[in-house]
Amino acid sequence: QGKYTFADGLDYKDKKWHYCDGYDRRFYAEICSGLKPAGISQHTNLDPPQKIPEGCYDCGDGFYNPETRVIVDYKLRFLRNADDDEHEWIIRTCRKAWDATTEQKPKP
């Protein structure tokens, strides 16, 4: 029994949970305040987003340094060491501090 409300005001529901379900990709802030015009879209629920330290990733509850495999909170206080699974997930899915160009390779 009980209720969980995230820091941004989103109420968690264990049944009929439609937030971030693959059909509606908006952040909670966008659900509440509306979408921004094309070209200035939000990249995180927080707008403007946290500035990520050089060489690190934003993993949702803090920053991850893949060299040290340490996650710190947004005030740079130690949270935890990442295991192999978390490391791979962060590298594959999280926002990073640098831009990387990708090349479109033509199909043969």
Question: How are the SSEs placed, and which strands pair?
Answer:
Elements: H1 28-33, E1 57-58, E2 63-65, E3 70-72, E4 78-81, H2 84-93, E5 95-96
Would you kindly provide a written description of the structure presented here, covering whatever features stand out?
It is found in: Cell projection, Cilium, Flagellum. This is MORN repeat-containing protein 5. Keywords: Cell projection, Cilium, Flagellum. The chain is of the alpha+beta class and 108 residues long. The protein contains two helices and five strands, in the order αββββαβ. It has helices spanning 28-33, 84-93, and strands at residues 57-58, 63-65, 70-72, 78-81, 95-96. It has a five-stranded antiparallel beta sheet with strand order 4-3-2-1-5, covered by helices on one side. It is globular and about 45 Å long. The model has no long low-confidence stretch (mean pLDDT 86).
Give a quick account of the main beta sheet: strands, pairing sense, barrel closure: 5 strands, antiparallel
Strand content: 5-15%
Instruction: Give the averaged pLDDT, no decimals.
Output: 86
The count of DSSP E runs of length 2 or more, i.e. the number of strands, is 5
Uncertain parts: none
Structural class: alpha+beta
What is the C-alpha radius of gyration, as a whole number of Å?
Answer: 17 Å
Protein name: MORN repeat-containing protein 5
Keywords: Cell projection, Cilium, Flagellum
Organism: Phalacrocorax carbo
Subcellular location: Cell projection, Cilium, Flagellum
